[in-house]
């Protein structure tokens, strides 16, 4: 992710957590997990009030560009979803999981944040679609080996974990041979730009190869939010090391007529360079 400014749309969470500044430093898994658990609990109301209409109650939207699974079919054809065991990692309020449930899949939706899962439960009750909801870390999946046919994540968990290798290794464990793992993240090239949807966000300000995490801190220096940057090559190598074969890398174009601004995503920037990377991979048998 490109570097956000301290005073941004997350002012409510920052106030609740006492965020006082920004740092760039190494952060291990325990500190990152603690910080991001508190962050997403604090930000759950604002996030869902701001983005809930775009994400829908039971729609599968991969990214701020609006790419939908109903159109892209990155998880496979419709007939493959019916009866499949599917894990969503970093489900948030779980609209993707409910869309998959509506397709006839048996879905488990996992998130670290109890605040986000509260919205997921409300969405389940509102729609009558009930994927299983589990609170856990993506680095330590609480499932038996070979439990799932497909795993997916739409901007969930991956940027916020200290070890993407641990996550991919865990996914390789819980997927069956030949299973699919598809995930979307902020396009790594965005890291070099300020987190600004306007003209200021068009000037590079940080090295692409600087992988030092972005950290928001309180007055004592304690992390209140942590986000990690990986290059495209980092993701490819991590997938390969865990036993996955990359079969597609999708960089959604900004659609004509799409005017919604979401954080750093905007028509201005979207016309010039990609904002999202979607990695599609298969677990080697």
UniProtKB/TrEMBL annotation:
Any single biological process term in GO: methylation
The keyword Disulfide bond appears for this protein: no
Molecular function terms, GO-annotated: S-adenosylmethionine-dependent methyltransferase activity
Top-level taxonomic group: Bacteria
One Pfam short name: Methyltransf_11
InterPro entries cross-referenced by the UniProt entry: Methyltransf_11, SAM-dependent_MTases_sf
Record's keyword terms, sorted: Methyltransferase, Transferase
UniProt key word Transferase: yes
The name this protein goes by in its record: Methyltransferase domain-containing protein
Native species: Prauserella marina
Top-level taxonomy: Bacteria, Bacillati, Actinomycetota, Actinomycetes, Pseudonocardiales
């Amino acid at each position: 992710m490109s570097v956000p400014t301290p005073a941004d749309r997350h002012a409510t969470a920052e106030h609740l957590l006492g965020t006082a500044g920004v740092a760039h430093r190494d952060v291990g898994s325990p500190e990152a997990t603690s910080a991001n658990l508190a962050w997403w609990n604090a930000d759950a109301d604002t996030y869902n009030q701001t983005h809930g209409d775009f994400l829908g109650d039971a729609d599968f939207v991969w990214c701020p560009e609006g790419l939908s699974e109903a159109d892209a079919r990155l998880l496979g054809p419709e007939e493959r979803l019916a009866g499949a065991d599917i894990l969503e990692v970093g489900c948030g309020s779980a609209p993707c999981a409910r869309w998959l449930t509506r397709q006839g899949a048996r879905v488990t939706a996992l998130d670290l944040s109890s605040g986000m899962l509260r919205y997921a439960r409300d969405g389940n009750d509102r729609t009558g679609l009930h994927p299983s909801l589990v609170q856990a870390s993506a680095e330590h999946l609480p499932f038996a080996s070979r439990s799932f046919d497909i795993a997916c994540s739409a901007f969930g968990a991956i940027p916020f974990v200290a070890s993407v290798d641990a996550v991919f290794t865990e996914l390789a464990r819980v997927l069956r041979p030949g299973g699919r793992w598809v995930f979307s993240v902020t396009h790594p090239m965005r890291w070099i730009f300020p987190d600004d949807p306007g003209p200021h966000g068009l000037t590079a300000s940080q090295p692409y190869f600087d992988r030092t995490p972005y950290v928001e801190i309180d007055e004592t220096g304690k992390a209140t939010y942590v986000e990690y940057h990986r290059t495209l090559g980092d993701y490819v190598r991590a997938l390969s090391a865990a036993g996955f074969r990359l079969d597609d890398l999708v960089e959604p174009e900004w659609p004509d007529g799409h005017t919604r601004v979401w954080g750093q995503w905007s028509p201005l920037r979207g016309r010039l360079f990609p904002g999202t990377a979607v990695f599609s991979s298969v677990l080697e048998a």
